[in-house]
Amino acid sequence: MQYSPLTLAFLGDSVYEQLVREDIVLKANTAVSRLHAASTKKVCAVFQSKAYDVILPHLDEDETSVLKRGRNATGCSAPKSASIIDYRRATAVECLFGFLHLTGRRERIEELMKIILSETKEDD
After folding, report:
1. 45 or 76, which is more confident?
2. Do residues 13 and 87 touch, judged by C-beta distance below 8 A?
3. How far is CA 41 from CA 10, 15, 88, 111, 112, in A?
4. Disulfide check for 98: which of 8, 15, 108, 124 has CB 3.0–4.6 Å away?
5. Residue range 74-91: average pLDDT?
6. How far apart are CA 42 and CA 31, in angstroms?
7. What are phi and psi of 51, to 5 degrees?
8. Which pLDDT score is estimated for 110?
9. How far apart are CA 123 and CA 102, in angstroms?
10. Does domain 5-119 have CATH number 1.25.40.10?
11. Residue 60 annotated in active site
12. What is the spatial distance between Cα 92 and Cα 72, in angstroms, rounded to a whole number?
């Protein structure tokens, strides 16, 4: 199964966001506007770029390879709220999540998300 890094990132974006939303809802049953604001902080490119550094030491060789393929993918332009470096590293995280999802590694996705959420803060 060989998909382009940007295709994997397209899928991984939704996998990542769903897990972030689940985490937030399970922690606080509050107004949707607050839920949205909390999730936005954790799905932005800057936060995901920090997540890149956090999970990198926990990855095996294959996962690291997928992460690097995602980081080096071309054809994407960064939003105004993030640098191109942050955006590429965020794409890499999403690429990894897409790959893990397509290969049926749900437990690994949850393990990495737990590491991300416990070791990465919005205000770092």
Report:
1. 45
2. no
3. 19, 16, 17, 20, 18
4. 8
5. 80
6. 17
7. -60, -35
8. 96
9. 32
10. no
11. no
12. 8
